Amino acid sequence: MPIAASQLPNISHIALPDVWRFKQDTHSLAIRHLSQAEGTFSCKVIGLRVVKGSAVQIRADLDVGYSILIGKKKNTSSPVWKASTHVLTSRDFIVSDGLLSLTNAVWDKHPLLSGPALYDIAAHARDSWAEALQFRQEVRAKEVVSAGFRPPQIGALHAVAAHWSISNKPALVVMPTGTGKTEVMLACLLMRAPKRLLVLVPSDALRAQTVNKFIRLGVLPQLGVLKSGVINPVVGMIRRTFRSKSDVAPLQRCNVIVSTVAAIQGVPKAVLSELLGAFDTVFFDEAHHLPALSWERISDALKDQTVLQFTATPFRLDGRRIAGRIIYNFPLRLAQNQGYFRKIHFKEVYEHTREQADIAIAHKAVQQLRGDLAAGYDHVLLARTEKKEQAEGIFNDIYSVKYPDLKPVLIHSGIRGRRKIVEAIKTGIHKIIVCVDMFGEGFDMPSLKVGALHDPHKSLAITLQFTGRFTRTATKLGDATLVANTADPRVSDAIEELYAEDSDWNEIIPELSAKAIQSQQDFSDFLERMVLDDRSDEDIFGLNVLHPKTSTVIFRTNSFNAGQFHRVAKKGMEIVREWHSKDKDLSIFITRSKVPIEWASIKEASHEIWDLHVLSHEPARQLLFVHSSQKGSLHQDVARAVGGPTAELFSGERMFRALHGVNRLIFHNVGLYNKGTKLRFRMYTGLDIADAITPVNHQPKLTLLF
What whole-number distance in Å separates Cα of residue 497 and Cα of residue 596? Predict the structure, then answer.
């Protein structure tokens, strides 16, 4: 819209657009370099050309020491244009409260638009990061008084720096959702100043969000933790799968490359080696995906790269472990106490039919949303289902029919125009979102504050990720509310406690999270203890995929030599992988045996059987614990091979001394062995069968107890 010349003296500030040095796209790669981010500057504005009382060309004299020529049309022949060092073309001028905003503004001239090629910019940027980071922590008194890194961020950075000073092994950083994990990644980039960094993420949405963060270095400039003169990195985004080695060459122009794992997993093996070889540092975001085959293929292909992994939930539904030591874990409880998580209010409905449960959940959730909106909170409701059909059902039959004034919208992977819908959601048009699962990783919208769980989650990890969507803090936002059906029989054991009557999610979630993370920490410590001693090229087994049964046979022995295990290897048995603890008290073996088939007399065909063997020695008590997936007499043979010929089997009732100190025993399975009677063995099973065993039955010998 035209700007009256009479308004010019009232302008005190101007909003200037980004200065892009490069925006280059190839078939597989998009490259960006932002020389200067958008910002607001103090200024005085003078009219240079006025037509019918409206200014069409102006000059803004900035307090920082330079002037900008701004016009509605580009006029390169004008003497004023030629003499100016900073020139903008803008479709319209908008003035509000002394601020001049420009519509569709484009820089025609700017000193930062010219200069070195991308290769040189990347090198100059890397050089500018030397000692660029200031480890300044924010100061709070309810609100932020002095900007800086948050406590979880500065703690993570010190932990990473300490780890990098002594080790090049993969490391894992655990930070709850909303504590500023991405800024830690950005600070690690500046702190490490790698030749080239690869950042791998699980989804397109998270890729776009991460690219934008790295282009601008997130909010680090606003936190005041960067010294002057820091140059933004040259950032590339892998758009499509690389097919040839020639696709890899443009990577050399960049400081950072961001990609989804899906965009890399289809790369041919020879090209993958060339691709990963271009990086000396790799970050895995949402690292709980790492045990997945597609992620594992990339992780296994890394050689000498420095690897850093980030996640809020280092545990998985399938039980597979994440490789890498946890070097920093900021507890969820502290995140709550320090105000990075809003409180969660759990409201329950109790319905036994799916149809009635959906109606009740929607009613209670919308009731909460209306109350929040009336209280002045800019909240949005997210209704979660497990499948597209269910999402479409509750959208068509409940939300769009009963609550049209809140402009419900349906979104899932099969909906067309998904990007436009997401933009409309972010602008606040829709107050109810019906989606499948959790709207995808990487969707950052703090106004999501009411959750309608029409389908419960199957695991603690996904539940924590989902609740993290609703607990982010921001101005004009209140506490989070989640609504679910406590009568739903599909609630898994892992999260059953959350769905109990009158459960307090603010107490339970941090406790469940801490237990799960401690389990991963214990496993990380275990991995640190073990050293691989390969005997073959078989590499399909790693310690993180092993799930031995909870059973053992115990022997008394005063010696232990795991190297003698090979003596019990029978004909046709091969030791294909083995690990030994650094303290020489624990050994794990994987063997492969070839067994003749029973239904034919032929040597050319045989069964291939894999077995797991675990040996643990406690020198102080002179005990040897033997676990083997192979049954039979092997336990005794193993014990005598590694513990000497005097190894003595523990058996009988003295085994149950292990239960000493357990004050409340609940027996589920009990086996009784009778002496000197025709009835040799009896078995009892049940939820608690202690009372079912009469005093007469106590006389037999106890042989089995679970």
Answer: 50
Over residues 517-540, the pLDDT tens digits come to 888 888 888 888 888 886 655 667
| Alpha-carbon dihedral 200, 201, 202, 206, rounded to 10 degrees | -160
Domain that holds residue 484: 344-517
Which run of H or E residues covers position 523? helix 505-529
Q: Tell me which amino acid residue 1 is.
A: M
Gap between the Cα atoms of 94 and 588, Å rounded: 72
d(CA 325, CA 173): 9
Of 230-244, 631-645, 648-662, where does mean pLDDT reach its minimum? Answer: 648-662
Q: At 430, which amino acid appears?
A: H
pLDDT of residue 440: 56
Q: Quick check: helix, strand or coil at residue 609?
A: strand
Q: Does some domain include residue 561? A: yes
The more confidently predicted of residues 70 and 466 is: 70
Residues 373 and 304 in one domain: no
The alpha carbon of 683 is separated from its chain's Cα centroid by a whole number of angstroms, namely 47
Asked whether 161 and 275 are in contact (CB, 8 A), the reply is no
- Structural domains counted in the chain: 5
203-218 tens-digit pLDDT: 888 899 999 999 999 9
CB 252 within 8 Å of CB 167? no
Exposed/middle/buried for residue 194 (C-beta within 10 Å: 0-12, 13-18, 19+): buried
- Measured from the Cβ of residue 97, the count of other Cβ atoms closer than 10 Å reads 7
Q: Which residues pair with 55 in a beta bridge?
A: 3, 50
SS3 letters across 175-199 = CCCCCCHHHHHHHHHHHHCCCCEEE
C-alpha–C-alpha distance, residues 365 and 21, integer Å: 48
Give residue 632's region: left, alpha or beta (phi > 0; psi -120 to 50): left
Same domain membership, residue 124 and residue 61: no
Is the predicted pLDDT of residue 450 greater than 70, yes or no? yes
CA count, 13 A, side-chain hemisphere, 628: 20
Report pLDDT digits (tens) over 384-426.
998 999 999 999 999 999 999 999 999 987 888 888 888 888 8
The Cα 475–Cα 427 span in angstroms is 16
The backbone torsions φ and ψ at residue 39, rounded to the nearest 5 degrees and listed phi first, read -170, 170
Which residue pairs from 663-670 have beta carbons closer than 8 angstroms and sit at least 24 positions apart in sequence? 665/690, 666/690, 667/705, 667/706, 668/706, 669/704, 669/705, 669/706, 670/702, 670/704, 670/705, 670/706
Tell me, yes or no, whether 87 and 145 share the same domain. Answer: no
Same domain for 18 and 142, yes or no, is no
Domain co-membership, 84 together with 155: no
Q: Quick check: 216 and 37 in contact, CB under 8 A?
A: yes
Tell whether the model's pLDDT for residue 496 goes beyond 80: no
Would you state the pLDDT for residue 86? 95
In-domain check, residue 522:
no
Where is mean pLDDT largest: 310-319, 619-628, 631-640?
Answer: 619-628
* Bridge partners (DSSP) listed for residue 236: 31, 257
For residue 41, the surrounding DSSP H or E stretch is strand 39-51
Q: Does the residue 544 lie in any domain?
A: yes
**One domain for residues 299 and 368:** no
